[in-house]
Amino acid sequence: MKIFYYSALCFLFFCVSCNKAIEPVKADVSTTPYFDTTGRDDIVTGGIKMIPITTPKGTFNVWTKRVGNNPKIKVLLLHGGPGITHEIFECFDSFFPQAGIEYYYYDQLGSYYSDQPEDKSLWDLDRFVEEVEQVRIALNLNKDNFYLYGQSWGGILGMQYALKYQDHLKGLIISNMVPSIPDYQKYSDEVLAPQLPPEVLKEILSYEEKEDYANPRYLDLIVQHYYTKHVIRMPVNSWPEPVSRSFKHLNTDVYVTMQGPSEFGIKGDATLKNWDVKDRLKEIEVPTLSIGAHYDTMDPNQMGWLAKEVQNGRFLFCPQGSHLSQFDDQEVFFSGLIDFIKDVDQGNPIQAGS
Predict the structure, then answer these.
(1) CA angle, corner 7, sides to 6 and 9, nearest 5?
(2) Would you call 290 a catalytic residue per the annotation?
(3) Catalytic member of 79, 86, 168, 323
(4) For the chain, percent helix, then strand, then coil, each to nearest 5?
(5) Domain boundaries, the chain
(6) What is the pTM of this model?
(7) What is the per-residue pLDDT across 272-326, written as a single tens digit (0 to 9) for each?
């Protein structure tokens, strides 16, 4: 779930011109309902709505943005980090609208476009679950239309939400997140770390031992040898602009409190360090898609196991993907994700071979 200490990484890295008037493009009759804003209260803002969230420390506002209109399919996107932003999902714009899927960008409390209180007691998993529930209610999402998509840390949040509030869900998507942080750490230590060149691993671990996590050399080693193989499989200077922008907007207070300062696992006194719901997955009844990738920081085999543990699950494997497989294995990622949503909507079987 290493997304990501980018404020320290910044040192690395509809307009058309024409000579004649352009006729407005008319929407196809079949897609017209998707763009219908009748009765919406977010037309002036282009779908953006600030939602007040009640917390033990007062009321704060979180940022959401609706795209499209489909009464039967509404997907709320939970970003990773913690403390990253919705910007990591902007490539969804290239796929969801043409599939007729209504979806909601959402910056969790503490993230860039939402309020950013400084009280660290707010960076608590159970409180975030209650925040998602308040967002659901404000957006009028319900069991007849509500799909919850969570990636990385968002996957933790999605699983925890489903274990308490799955009666409100129509479908659940867990992307690039295993159900156990200790297992994630073990996979990082025993499988991914040994794949690094020995001299690189030795140097990374030397900085880890000294807890010198902000050292530019440490960060450069992590980005060049770890991120480009397991987080997003592209050269740093080719990373999609929304990825760089989202990393730039990271709230490090949220990130370090819950995830810890290391870029090579979850260490120190991070609040998520011992999180594990493997034994509770059988409680999840709602149709569930688990997305894993061959080069991910998360064990894809465990993502496949997760799909079998829930009562009605499907596994989507991205053979060329990593932690951000929505960017580096797009065709497989989006075709499988959209197929799952459509199958749930149409009442088709979810389990492979059923």
Answers:
(1) 55
(2) no
(3) 323
(4) 45, 15, 40
(5) 29-181+273-346
(6) 0.91
(7) 999 999 999 999 999 999 999 999 999 999 999 999 999 999 999 999 999 999 9
How many Å apart are CA 123 and CA 117, to the nearest integer? Answer: 10
Active site annotation includes 152: yes
pLDDT of 25 > 90? The answer is: no
Is 212 noted as a catalytic residue in this protein? no
β-bridge partners, 51? 62
CATH of 29-181+273-346, one of 3.30.1330.10, 3.40.50.1820, 3.40.50.920, 3.30.1360.70: 3.40.50.1820
Omega prior to 4 cis, within 30 of 0? yes
Q: What is the pLDDT of residues 104-132, one digit of tens each?
A: 999 999 999 999 999 999 999 999 999 99
Quote the tokens at residue 26: 């008319």
Cα–Cα distance list, 327 to 14, 293, 351 (Å): 22, 12, 26
Q: Catalytic one among 296, 299, 328, 329?
A: 296
Annotate 52-117 with DSSP letters as a single string. EEEETTEEEEEEEEEES--TT-EEEEE--TTT--GGGGGGGGGTTGGGT-EEEEEEPTTSTTS---
Among 152, 175, 180, 322, the one annotated catalytic? 152
